[in-house]
Design goal:
The chain is mainly alpha-helical. Helix content is 60%, strand content 4%. The protein is built from four helices and two strands; from the N terminus they run E-H-H-H-H-E. The chain has a two-stranded antiparallel sheet with strand order 1-2. The protein starts with 8 loop residues before the first strand and ends with a strand.
Length: 110
């Protein structure tokens, strides 16, 4: 630890959240294609990874926003949204949730 910054906060969820945002933004354009299953896998797995990191950071209340994303984008038991424009819009809302959680969750090393 540096003497200048003795208790520097770390954003442990931010790398996974940024990757999820990139996948969600790409996925919003390819909702009706066959490769969208890969987007579902990646988003669902990254949401679960973020849930684990949030719980490890002892800020479990952020999981309230991540668990529905993991369920809605789950490719094993898919929840089909009839309106593709609605589902594309949900991509942007989920991206916003990932950004907020990635920036807000900080862990201070002791």
């Amino acid at each position: 630890m540096s003497a200048t910054y003795p208790n520097r906060p770390r954003r442990v969820v931010l790398p996974a959240a940024v990757l999820a945002v990139l996948v969600l933004l790409v996925g919003a354009g390819i909702v009706e294609t066959e490769i969208f299953t890969v987007v579902r896998y990646v988003v669902s797995i990254l949401a679960l990874i973020c849930v684990v990191l949030v719980v490890q950071a002892r800020q479990w209340w952020w999981a309230i926003g991540l668990v529905p994303i993991a369920i809605l984008w789950n490719p094993v038991f898919p929840i089909e949204v009839a309106d593709t424009q609605l589902f594309a819009g949900l991509h942007y809302i989920a991206a916003l949730v990932f950004i907020v959680i990635g920036v807000a969750v900080r862990v201070t090393d002791s």
